Structure formats: structure tokens, C-alpha cells
Amino acid sequence: MAKSDKQGTRTERLFATILLLQNRPNLTSRDLAEHFGVSRRTVFRDLRALSDSGVPLTYSEGGGYEILEGYQLPPLMLTAREAATLIVGTEFMKLQSDASMREDADAVSLKIRSVLPREIREYIDQLSDNTVLDPYWVHAVRTEGEESGKWYKLSEAAARSRQVIMEYFVDSRQELTQRRVDPLGLVYYTDHWNLIAFDHLREEIRNFRLDRIEEMFVLSEGFDRPEGFDLQAYLEQDGQQTSSIRVTLSFDDTAYVRARTSIPARVEKETRVEDRVEVTFHFGNQNYLASWLLRFGGAVRVLEPVELAEAHLEAAQKIVGNY
Questions:
Q1: Are 109 and 90 spatial neighbours (Cβ–Cβ below 8 Å)?
Q2: Which domain holds residue 113?
Q3: What is the pLDDT of residues 277-311, one digit of tens each?
Q4: Residues 179, 192 within the same domain
Q5: Residue 300, class by beta-carbon neighbours within 10 Å (0-12 exposed, 13-18 middle, 19+ buried)?
Q6: Which residues have a Cβ under 8 Å from the Cβ of 61 and sit 6 or more positions away?
Q7: How many angstroms separate the CA atoms of 38 and 107, rounded?
Q8: pTM reported for the whole predicted model
Q9: Element (H or E) spanning 178, and its range?
Q10: Based on the domain organization, do 227 and 256 belong to the same domain?
Q11: Buried b (16+ CB within 10 A) or exposed e, 207-235
Q12: Does residue 219 form part of some domain?
């Protein structure tokens, strides 16, 4: 049994090596060894086995291995675990507000199921019957064109470096504005999608909620991305927006267990003070934070800034005023 398991592990690694080199050419033996957690000697044996089996491996001028363009793997086979991961992923996409994303997720799910062996398909059906991502989600009434295609159009514009003009509603001023932007990427914050883009009106990188984009058009005009710009690094950088504020909150233990998974920013500092936890991070949307804090009731206090504490109190008083 151990021998069979070892062989299975190597077979999976050989398959993964092909996929890795096709997607990330010019990897060295050291790169491959670090990726798979094996020795370089093992990597050399794997590469020799692939070459002997007909995989057209070459060593590029850049100093790494690659597979000649045009080589294709046999039809892709998914394990039950891999298929389950994909199906759960499509179920998550079906919770999105953009109707086109829900429709695409349905289509992808059907295609995945159609190529699965009967045994795995039956397992996936059982998994779906016993997995609920959001028990309180209700299918919204789908109006014609409601948010339809915004995510895909903006992601394509970012990938192809195409400018976008849009009508954007600024909630703080209750004003509809005209913007020309250079899309740099998309990010999902807890319950909504945001576009990270260079705003030609403000001449800086800004954050735009997709659900506040009234109309948009992708232009044929291209743009040059900021030199060295990395979306993940930008999101993690302190003071990522000019409107970013330093926030310190105090939670009781029970509330923080729930809060830590949904804080809409990278936590910079976490300190235990007696039976409470103080957490610090930067964030640029004070109105969103004030609303987000309400879900924790009296188990959270705003220590800084004062403006957020006042906004939190005002939001709570509005609720009290309803009764």
C-alpha cells in the first residue's frame, strides 16, 4: 500500500510539473524543488521521466525549464476532491449580485458535471445536497441588465489595459459623477466587489464600488500601468488611499472570534488587554465601517478615530429611533 501511495504521489507531481511549466516557464530545478518540497535530485529524475514519456522539455536561454509551445495534455481528469472544490467555487459565484456571474457559474457547473465519471458525479450531487454556503440568501428579483456583466467587463479592461468611462454615484455627497479611469484590478470585500483604478479626475488611484457604477463603457484607448504596480502589495500597503484612516477597535473575546475573519483590511496590530482584544488597521471608507460595526452590538468599542466613534454612535441612534 505504501508503495502504491508513493507512486500515486509521484504521478500527481509529474502531472503538476507539466501544468506548472506550461503556466510559468523558465523555472529552474531549484524553483521546482522549493515548489514541491523535494530535493533537486528528485526534480531531475522527474524531468527525465517526463522527457522519456514524450513531453518536449527544453532549457531556455533565460536559464530555466519550459515545455515547447503546442504540447497538450490528454483530456483533463479531476479527482473527487478537485471536482468538489470547483463545484463549491461555482456555488459561491451564484451568490453574487451580478446576474451574468450567476449565469456563467451555472454554465460552468453544468460543464464540469458533464465530463465527470458517474461515481464522482453522484458524489458531487450528494455533496451539494449537504452543503449550504448561505442559508439566508434569497434570490433577488433580477431586473433587466442589473449589474449585468460589470465584473467581467472591468476584469477584461484591466487585463487588456483599456480605459473606462463611467457614471459613478458618490454616496457621501449623494451625487452622480463622470469618471475616466484606468482599471488596475478587482477586489472582493466581504459582501461587494470593488474596482481599483487610476482616477483621471482626482489624478490618483481610487477605490470604486461596482454596485455604485450606474453606467460604464470600455474604450479602445489603452493605458500604461504604473511601473511596478502590484495589486496585492497596494492593498496591503498602509495608507493605501489618501482618505485612509487609522482605526483601533476593542472587542470582547467572543465577538473577536467572529470579527477577525471579516475585518475589511490587513490587521497591523493585535493586542490583548485583560479580557478584550484591541486591533488596529487602516481603512478608507468610514461610513462602511460604522455600518459593519453594528453587527457586533455592544461587544465592540471604537478607540480611534473620534470621527468613527461618532459615526458608530449615530448609526446606533438611528436604529434606536426606529422603536
A1: yes
A2: 78-148
A3: 999 988 877 878 888 899 898 999 999 999 999 98
A4: yes
A5: buried
A6: none
A7: 39
A8: 0.56
A9: strand 175-189
A10: no
A11: bbbbbbbeebebeeeebeeeeeeeeeebb
A12: yes
